[in-house]
Design brief:
alpha/beta, VC0802-like, 2 domains
C-alpha cells in the first residue's frame, strides 16, 4: 500500500535556493527579469539564490541535431556528412543566431559589443578545434570516431555559456552583483569529476552577497552528454543543490505541472497539481514528459531536498512541489499523460517458449541502436517492446532479429501510449472505469500495463486515437472525481 504522509526530522539546509531556467523561458528575457531574477526584490532579497541556465530555445538543436525531427546540426554534419565543410557553414549560422539573440536583449552598443565578442571567441575557438581535429584525423593514425563524443560535449557547452554570460551581463547592468560561473571547462586544462568542478567553482562565492549565474553544461571526466544526453542541465542543477545543501530546488518552465496537457484537454478542465512525489515524476519521465531528469531527481530525493516546478509566466503562483514520500489523502488519478510516436516491435516465434535467449537478444539490439523501451509485453511465444526513437533504427532492430531467428515473425506497429498516474491509485474499480472510458468512445485498447505497485496504468492505443484517449481518460478519472480535483487545485 502507498505510504501516507508522516512527520520526520528535517535535515540541515542552507538558506539559499538553486533554480534552473529552461531554454524557452530564458529566451523571454524581460519576463524572466520581472518574474524570476529581479521582480520586486530589492537589496539583499536578490541574493541567496543560484541560477542554472539552459541554452536559449533552439540553440542546442542547431549545435547537435533537432531533438524531435533529427534535422542535422553542427555535430551531425561534422560526424556524418559527405561534405567536409558543411559543418563549418552550420556553426557560422549558430554564431549568427546567437548575435541576433544578443541584439534583441542589449540596446546599449557597448553591452552588445561585449556580448558579440563573447560569442565570436567561443564560436571561432570551437571551429578552430574542429578544423585541427579534422586535419589530424586525415592522416589515418587518428580515428575521428574516437573523438566524436568530445566534440559533442564541446559543442553542447556553447549554448549554456552564451545564455549564462548574457544573463550575468544584463544583471550587472541592473546593479546586481551577478557572477558568471563557467563550468564548461573553456581553456581549462584540469580534468575533474563533476562534483569537484562544482565545489571548486563555488568555493570562493558568497551566495548571500553574490548572484551566481551558472552554465547548465559542466565539463567533467564522466562526460555529461555521453552519460545523460540532453538531460545534462538538470544533472548540473541537481548536483549544485545537493553539494551546496540548498533548502529548495526550483525548476522554472513555460507551463505548470498539470492534470493534463492544456493543448489537448480544454484549459478550463485542466488543474495545476499542488503536490506530488518523485514516483510520479519518474512515470512522467518514462513517457518522455520530464518534470525532471530521473538521475537528477535521484540526487534531490536522496538528499531530501524539496523540488518545486513553477510557471515562468505566473510569478505569484506557488507551482508544484515534488516531495519524498508524499501521498494523496484521497486515492485516485492525478495526471493523464502520454506520448505519440511510439513503436510496438512485436516478435513471434513458435519455438520461443521456455527460451530466455530471445529476450536477451531483443534487448541487446535495442541498446545497440540507442532505443529506449517504454514498456514490454510477453507471453509463451511473443515479445513486444514499446519504444521511442528514429524509425530507421527500429527497422534495423527488426532486420537483425529476423537474421538471428529466420523462423520468427516480426512486425512494427505505430501506436501511442496514454497513462493514468497518481501517488495513490489503490481505488477499487479504477481499471474498469478507465477501460470503459476508452471503449465506450470507440477507442481500441491494444495493450494494458498495470503493476502490483500501482503508480500508473499504461494503455497502448492506435496513434490516431491519442488525443481522444487523453481527453476521455481525463474526463472520466480526473474531472469526474470532484474531491480529487479540488484537492489538486488547492
Amino acid at each position: 500500500m502507498p505510504r501516507r504522509n508522516s512527520k520526520k526530522t528535517e535535515p540541515e539546509f542552507n538558506p539559499h535556493t538553486v533554480e534552473k531556467i529552461g531554454g524557452t523561458s530564458i529566451a523571454k528575457t524581460d519576463v524572466v527579469l520581472d518574474n524570476i531574477l529581479i521582480g520586486d526584490r530589492t537589496g539583499d532579497e536578490v541574493y541567496n539564490r543560484v541560477f542554472v541556465l539552459s541554452a536559449y530555445a533552439g540553440i542546442t538543436d542547431m549545435l547537435l541535431e533537432h531533438k524531435k525531427t533529427q534535422k542535422p546540426g553542427v555535430y551531425s554534419l561534422f560526424s556524418g556528412t559527405d561534405s567536409e565543410w558543411a559543418w563549418s557553414d552550420s556553426i557560422s549560422e549558430v554564431g549568427q543566431k546567437m548575435r541576433e539573440i544578443n541584439a534583441r536583449i542589449f540596446t546599449d552598443a557597448a553591452d552588445l559589443a561585449e556580448a558579440d565578442r563573447f560569442v565570436r571567441e567561443r564560436i571561432e575557438g570551437v571551429r578552430s578545434c574542429m578544423i585541427d581535429l579534422h586535419r589530424l584525423c586525415s592522416y589515418g593514425h587518428f580515428k575521428l570516431d574516437e573523438h566524436l563524443m568530445t566534440v559533442r560535449e564541446m559543442l553542447s557547452a556553447l549554448g549554456e555559456a552564451h545564455s549564462a554570460f548574457n544573463t550575468t551581463l544584463l544583471l550587472q547592468k541592473h546593479g546586481i552583483n551577478a557572477q558568471f560561473v563557467d563550468l564548461t571547462g573553456w581553456r581549462d586544462m584540469a580534468h575533474l569529476q563533476l562534483d569537484e568542478r562544482i565545489e571548486l567553482a563555488f568555493k570562493s562565492i558568497d551566495i548571500s552577497k553574490t548572484l551566481p549565474i551558472v552554465t547548465g553544461y559542466a565539463q567533467c571526466n564522466e562526460g555529461l552528454m555521453s552519460t545523460y544526453d540532453r538531460g545534462y542541465t538538470e544533472i548540473t542543477f541537481s548536483r549544485i543543490a545537493v553539494l551546496t545543501k540548498a533548502r529548495e530546488a526550483i525548476i522554472h518552465k513555460e507551463y505548470h505541472l498539470s492534470t493534463a496537457d492544456p493543448k489537448i484537454v480544454p484549459e478550463d478542465k485542466v488543474r495545476t497539481i499542488g503536490r506530488t512525489n518523485y514516483d510520479v515524476a519518474d512515470q512522467l519521465s518514462n513517457l518522455g514528459m520530464e518534470a525532471i531528469h530521473p538521475r537528477a531527481a535521484k540526487g534531490l530525493r536522496q538528499a531530501d531536498i524539496l523540488l518545486r516546478v513553477r510557471n515562468t509566466f505566473e510569478k505569484d503562483h506557488a507551482g508544484t512541489t515534488i516531495e519524498t514520500g508524499y501521498c494523496s489523502d484521497t486515492p485516485g488519478v492525478e495526471i493523464v499523460a502520454g506520448r505519440r510516436g511510439v513503436y510496438g516491435i512485436e516478435f513471434f516465434d513458435q519455438d520461443m517458449v521456455g527460451d530466455i535467449g530471445y529476450d536477451e537478444k531483443f534487448i541487446h539490439q535495442l541498446r545497440k541502436r540507442g532505443l529506449r523501451p517504454m514498456a514490454k509485453d510477453f507471453n509463451a511465444n511473443t515479445i513486444t517492446y514499446y519504444v521511442t526513437g528514429p524509425i530507421n533504427q527500429i527497422r534495423k532492430v527488426s532486420e537483425d532479429m529476423e537474421k538471428a531467428y529466420p523462423n520468427g515473425e516480426i512486425s512494427i506497429h505505430n501506436v501511442a501510449a496514454v497513462a493514468a498516474i497518481g501517488t495513490d491509485m489503490h481505488k477499487m474499480g479504477l481499471l474498469k472505469q478507465a477501460v470503459s472510458a476508452l471503449t465506450d468512445n470507440d477507442i481500441k485498447v491494444l495493450s494494458i500495463h498495470q503493476m502490483i505497485r500501482l503508480a500508473d496504468i499504461l494503455f497502448i492505443v492506435n496513434e490516431g486515437d491519442y488525443e481522444k484517449a487523453v481527453c476521455k481518460l481525463h474526463e472520466s478519472l480526473v474531472e469526474s472525481d470532484n474531491n480529487n480535483v479540488t484537492a489538486l487545485a488547492a
